[in-house]
Design goal:
There is one protein chain. With 720 residues, the protein is of the alpha+beta class. The protein folds into 5 domains: 14-66, no CATH class; 70-164; 174-264, no CATH class; 280-480, Ribonuclease H-like superfamily/Ribonuclease H (Nucleotidyltransferase, domain 5, 2-Layer Sandwich), CATH 3.30.420.10; 498-584, no CATH class. It has 24 helices and 20 strands. Strands 13-16-17-18-15-14 form a 6-stranded antiparallel β-sheet. Strands 4-3-2-1-5 form a 5-stranded antiparallel β-sheet. A 5-stranded mixed β-sheet has the order 10-9-6-11-12, with helices on both faces. A hairpin with a 7-residue loop joins strand 3 and strand 4 (44-45).
């Protein structure tokens, strides 16, 4: 009979009790204290209880546990579901035998006279019996039993590792493995991103070349004289070596580090919010549906859907459907609906909804991706005025706004893919379905269908994650956040959720994309801030009849009316821009017309150039003589130099009344005096031909005496 093992307990030692590892504590008040590694289980046993557990083979020391084979210890650390079905069946086939032995008295558990008949009877009652000529022996069954007992009567100790059987000798030589790894680095683990098949072919070629170069024997031919192998290496040789490598460095080399991080990072559930209106998520998707025009019946294509979801309640609070690609327009339109009451919008779709869509107010946070539409000036001004911070989710982290992305995918799968004219997610999924021929839904009908699905279906369906109806969870979440928030005034939402641009305020008002707005209020604002001042303009994307200019002194929005044709007022801003683009695209350049205009322009330039060549420049001396006279000082006063008078002796300073008088003042003003008498005319030297000669008064001819000098003179005395 196998004797019960003796176990010596010491504080801090490890023991196994009923298959669970415990740490031995202190002996206090006649009891031994034990603690599990996680600290959650703290049993206490007396010495008598420990002896009974030892006799029942339920209490073992750590060395006895380590005596188990490595396969058994590995099996005890493996989840039962991780074993193959064949491995699970081997354990279940052994279990009835060890359970039968465990029911025997302890002194008979290792005796052949008790165990041998037990093996026969147990095998006869088993569901999966052993063949009678291959019954397990007494020694084999006893070995099963003690492994099972030392493992804490865990069925995993009975599992046969079928995958570990067979020849475990390496099939390839070391140099062959080196060549395969080199081929993997060349073809598979590189930017060219070769397939496993291409890598296998490269490895085969490298092995053949090295075997010839170094005179080596390929393992596929080794030990097989006169026998030909099918291939140099097995078809899975490359795949096995790739599987042994770390996959993250391979993904970095084949793609990029950012993509590798995205592929191998820990994917969480994303923030869930703390209460209703605490945080929103916004995103876009193109619906997998072809839609027709309401009037012309022409197929418009696939519309875009911009949706906003409340993180905490999973309620859809706003959306916008249009054919405009994701932009500030779609975001602002969806945000306008999310902030406002929904009665007016639902009435515009025909009303008759079965449930209320009672959600409004400004959220504490808005989460979006890194799209350009979320970085626009319009978005920045909106978040500042509404006190609504907008946060960008890091690039490649769609899981941080996974709630809206999951809803958009759910919306496409549950609704859009069941409508006539759906294009499905991809051509393989669409198959032979003719989306164009089955596209019968008009745009207005699609908008009504989406509204009914959001208001009456999704918002009223129990969510699988929260296990609550989103509309009811929204109402409960409002109380957690301090109650509901009133919606912003309509007159504030309209200008705030519009297009924001910088423009000049002039007499004609403000302009944008060939549209002009003006009013007396705008002219009064221009009077205060000055003409051509830079102002911030907001344009309502859904109603372009009015534009708003910010008065930065009072922080008020001053409105201006659209000054344009009446037909333009009926369009939204996106419709107008679309029509404007279509008209611009229809314009075709006429080369003949353009050539005639170019010839007319060239004729003007030729005329100007010919005029400049027909007259050469005047010499600088002549030009100054014509414009200023002999010297510039002559325009100020006459020349007082007289050679004859300067040779006479000085006389008295008495003035004679009979002397010559000064000339009368010039009629053009007292600041002018005549400096040259008008006696004959003389021309300046001829300028280079063909410039004409310029007539000027230069004085009397040389053969005539000079006239007396006008002005004041000294009288001539008798002794002169």
């Amino acid at each position: 009979m196998r004797q019960a093992p003796e176990i010596k307990l010491m504080p801090g030692g490890l023991v196994w009790v009923r298959g669970q590892q415990l740490i031995t504590g202190q002996y206090e008040d006649g009891l031994w204290n034990f603690t599990s590694k996680d600290g959650k289980y703290r049993p206490k046993f007396s010495s008598q209880a420990i002896k009974k557990l030892i006799r029942d083979d339920c209490f073992f020391s750590e060395p006895m546990r380590k005596a188990l084979s490595p396969n058994v210890r590995e099996a005890l650390n493996t989840d039962w579901g991780s074993f193959t079905l064949a491995e699970q069946m081997t354990a279940q086939r052994k279990l009835p035998f060890v359970q039968a032995i465990d029911k025997l008295p302890r002194r008979e558990r290792d005796k052949s006279k008790s165990i041998s008949p037990l093996i026969v009877s147990t095998n006869a009652e088993a569901k999966d019996p052993f063949p009678e000529d291959h019954l397990p022996t007494k020694r084999r069954v006893t070995d099963w039993y003690w492994k099972w007992v030392f493992a804490g009567r865990d069925i995993r100790a009975l599992v046969d590792f079928l995958s570990a059987r067979g020849n475990r000798e390496p099939r390839l030589e070391d140099w062959e493995v080196e060549e395969i790894n080199a081929a993997i680095d060349e073809v598979y683990n590189s930017e060219i991103r070769g397939s496993e098949g291409a890598t296998w072919r490269r490895a085969r070629d490298r092995i053949l070349l090295r075997a010839k170069r170094d005179k080596l024997v390929i393992s596929a031919y080794n030990g097989k004289p006169g026998r030909k192998a099918k291939e140099v290496i097995g078809k899975n040789a490359v795949a096995r070596l790739i599987a042994k490598r770390e996959h993250f460095p391979i993904a970095v080399n084949r793609f990029s580090r950012s993509k590798a991080n995205q592929q191998f990072r820990n994917l969480g559930a994303g923030p869930s919010g703390e209460y209703s209106l605490s945080s929103y998520e916004v995103d876009h998707t193109q619906l997998d549906l072809l839609v027709r025009h309401d009037d012309s019946e022409t197929i418009l294509g696939r519309p875009w859907l911009t949706a906003i979801i409340d993180r905490w309640s999973r309620l859809i609070v706003g959306y916008y459907i249009s054919f405009a690609p994701p932009s500030w327009l779609t975001v602002m339109a969806a945000l306008r609906l999310a902030l406002s009451r929904k009665e007016k919008y639902l009435a515009s779709l025909g009303g008759g909804f079965r449930f209320e869509w009672n959600c409004y107010g400004v959220p504490d946070k808005l989460f979006c991706d890194n799209g350009r539409e979320f970085r626009s000036e319009s978005m920045r001004m909106t978040q500042v005025v509404l006190n609504m911070p907008v946060y960008d989710v890091p690039r490649g982290r769609g899981d941080l706004k996974g709630k809206i992305e999951r809803w958009l995918r759910k919306h496409n799968q549950e609704l859009i893919h069941l409508l006539p004219g759906t294009s499905r997610s991809n051509p393989q999924d669409r198959g032979d379905y003719d989306s164009v021929a089955n596209a019968i839904l008009k745009f207005s009908v699609v908008k009504r269908i989406v509204a009914v699905y959001v208001v009456d279906v999704y918002n009223q369906s129990r969510h699988t994650t929260t296990d609550e109806i989103p509309a009811e969870r929204w109402e409960r979440g409002l109380q957690l956040g301090g109650g509901e928030k009133p919606p912003p005034p309509e007159e504030l939402i309209a200008p705030l959720t519009g297009l924001v641009v910088r423009r000049k305020l002039r007499r004609e008002g403000v302009r944008y994309n060939r549209l002009r707005w003006n009013s007396d209020e705008l002219q009064a604002l221009m009077n205060r801030i000055g003409p051509s001042a830079d102002v911030m303009v907001r344009i309502d994307p859904l109603d372009i009849k009015t534009a708003y200019v910010l008065d930065e002194d009072t922080d008020d929005w001053v409105s201006g009316a659209l000054i344009s044709e009446t037909e333009v007022e009926q369009y939204t801003l996106s419709q107008y821009e679309h029509l404007r683009k279509k008209l611009d695209d229809q314009h075709e350049y006429d080369p003949e017309h353009g050539l005639k205009m170019a010839q007319a322009s060239q004729e003007i330039w030729d005329l100007v150039q010919s005029s400049q060549k027909s007259r050469g420049p005047v010499k600088k001396v002549d030009a100054r003589f014509v414009t200023e006279g002999r010297k510039p000082a002559a325009h100020i006063h006459q020349d007082r130099h007289d050679p004859v008078e300067s040779q006479r002796p000085l006389g008295s300073h008495e003035f004679s009344e009979s002397g010559p008088k000064s000339a009368p003042p010039d009629a053009r003003g007292p600041w002018r005096e005549r400096v040259l008498p008008v006696v004959g005319q003389r021309s300046t030297p001829a300028a280079p031909d063909p410039a004409p000669s310029i007539p000027v008064h230069c004085g009397p001819p040389p053969d005539q005496p000079a006239p007396p000098i006008t002005g004041r003179r000294r009288p001539i005395t008798a002794g002169a």
